[in-house]
Amino acid sequence: MRCSKPYKVAQAIAEAGIEPLCQLFQAQKTPAHYGRPTAQKLVTFANQSVSSGRAVAGRSVSLRILCDQLEHTQANLARLQVEIEQLLSTDPEVKGLQQIPEFGSKTVAVLRAELGDVQRFARTDEVIASGGMDVEIKESGHRIGRAKLSKRGSGLLRRMLYLAALRSIHLESSPFGAYYHRLVERGLKKGFALPGRDAQNASGGSPFAENGGGV
């Protein structure tokens, strides 16, 4: 990140102190979680640094190179995000997905890319199977008879849905989040009912089914 450049070694961070770091975070418009706690940790780590003080110039060059590489990566990611937004804006097949509050543009893009033309699916369970979220019964080993996800489909699709589920539990307007919190209130262990958990899928639990429809 750009704000690392003014402080090229740990000693510089330790000497700067917390307030200048906080001001630098604000000036560079870093993510919201880069605030005073982050500055305090940086100063603490800098004071605990085991650096000998030798080859400071060489380490400074290395840090500048890493910062340049990170800035280049961030610029490329920003360009990719713009391209994703442009593609989604011209794709009529994503309109329904974009209306789901749990789904951001990256999630919608992955679903669209991984599922392709949804008209090729005749039933909902075919869509579920394509993501490897269908349930199978284990028939070997010491857990015979236990229900588990097949995981034969797209791993990327499963990961994106899991991240969307994590986001949903913090959204007040999310039907899935409301369903999840109801399960927790009934005594279910936190995290156990998220997508990707074998027991939740095996039991047929689905916030969308409960609300009379699918995504």
List descriptors.
215 residues; mainly alpha; two-stranded antiparallel ribbon; 55% helix; elongated
Description:
The C terminus is likely disordered. The chain starts with 9 loop residues before the first helix and ends in a 5-residue tail after the last helix. The chain is elongated and about 65 Å long. A two-stranded antiparallel ribbon has the order 1-2. Helix 1 crosses helix 3, helix 2 packs across helix 3 and helix 4 packs across helix 6. It is an all-alpha fold and 215 residues long. It folds into 2 domains: 88 residues, no CATH class; 118 residues, no CATH class. It has 11 helices and 2 strands.
List the helices and strands and how they pair.
Layout: H1 10-16, H2 18-27, H3 36-47, H4 56-89, H5 95-98, H6 105-115, H7 124-130, E1 135-137, E2 147-149, H8 155-168, H9 175-185, H10 198-202, H11 207-210
Mean pLDDT: 76
Strand order of the largest sheet: 1-2
Distance between the termini: 38 Å
What profile does the largest beta sheet have?
2 strands, antiparallel
User: Which regions contain 5 or more consecutive residues with pLDDT less than 50?
Assistant: 196-215
By DSSP, the count of extended strands is 2
- Count of the separate structural domains: 2
CA-based shape: elongated
Please state roughly what percent of the residues sit in beta strands, choosing from under 5%, 5-15%, 15-25%, 25-35%, 35-45% or over 45%: under 5%
Order of helices and strands: HHHHHHHEEHHHH
Return Rg in Å: 24 Å
Number of helices: 11
Q: What share of the residues lie within helices?
A: 55-70%
Structural class estimated from helices and strands: mainly alpha
